Amino acid sequence: MSIRLRLTLWYSGLLAILLIAVSVIMYAVVSQNTMGVIKNRLAIEADKIRVAVSPDDLDLTPRASSPFDVIIAVQVVNYSQSFEGVVNSKSSNLISSNFTFPFPSAKQAVDGQYRAVTLSGTPFLIYEKRLELGGQLLGLLQVGAYTGKEIGYLSQMRTILWIAGLASLVLAFVIGLFLARKALRPIEKVTEAAERVQSGSDLKLRIPGESQDEIGRLTRTLNHMLERVEKAYNVLEESNTAQRRFVSDASHELRTPLTTIRGNVDLLEKVWAEKASGDLADASGNAMAKPRLSLAEREELSREALHDISDEARRMSSLVNDLLSLARADAGYVVDKEPIDLLPLVEEAARRAGFLPRKAEWIVGPLDALAGVRVVANRDYLMQLLFIFIENGFKYTPAGAVRLEVFRQDDRVGLSVVDTGIGIAKSDMPRIFDRFYRADESRGQTAGTGLGLSIAKWIADMHRASLDVQSRPEGGSRFTVWLPVDFSDRPDYGIMEASVRPVVPGTEPS
Question: How far apart are CA 129 and CA 53, in angstroms?
């Protein structure tokens, strides 16, 4: 049974009970009022009738103070001759109709009693009044009224109530079905939307018609849920796409050094497997007569091949280490951190950076702002983050300078690497932290895997630090990491504020 039918049946059942209760109450009130008017009139008429009662002569012939109409009939019963009673006299309308009201015996006669009787199919309501003399019952006065019209009226009323009640109930059932269908239509829309979402056909689907009632609240809740499902699905799709791109890029980056290593190994095998005749096999395997290589030439070729193999092995080792760091980031790896003094770490990084291969000038700005500053960090990873910025500065600055600057702002300390290199286009800025992303063709000509900034972003996140990048093409770049200062285990050392501020993007660093 559907919810719509159940709601309609419940509504119709309650309406039926209500209609029955209202009809019973209405009929009872009308019946009491109608019969009450007749009873009051009978009592009044009985008081108007005078009956002569005498102990010597029991003449019970009624003497009315006013003539009776055709509706009111009077009958007098005499108990002086018999306790069962004898009809002593009647009104003319009873005589003409040949009707006699039924009457009780002397023992059953009650003063002020009403009786409903039917004589030959004619209904009457009778009022009885005892006639006494000296406390002794002598007779009974019966005043009756014809109630055919009232009974007919009440019968018609019962019929009308039954017909109207049934018609109202049927009409209410039909209208209830219609209203229930209309009220439950939003739920059907919700069901249809859920089925379409379940089939995966359209995650952008939203349920229309948000009202202010309970169904509207349900619709808004489901729309919010669908929005979250769509976002989660999009994130999953982006994650899968990024994963596929990551695997593809990693395979490409690993294939290049492996190809180089394999080629050099093949070359070494051919060089030292040369026959005494000096014939060397070409790439197709055909023998070609060539001059025999001397021992010195073989050693020179071997050294070059081994040098290439060593470079590619270092490149692969660096790539594998970067991939391991990113895998740790994806797995939610948390680095171990402890309070460390920042100044010695930056000084060591600046010193070691001076030995890196470069074409640009390496400038270390004043480090006074780091005096007494402690941060909660992992020394090795923080050093790695600085070297990523420094190496990028050297790599993309073919001429000019790379400068290290530090400054302090309230409870944060900034470490900034500024270069005067080729810069980054505005369109590339949102993607510079993506894995394997290389900004443009000029950067693609520079050696690298495109993983450094992704690792730097992960290290910054692990240290609750923020990264700030300012750059423009041919105007240089500034990479700044903001670290929170640790005040947990020492008083205020009165650290002086740094006077060095970031340069405007695209300008020469001072």
Answer: 14
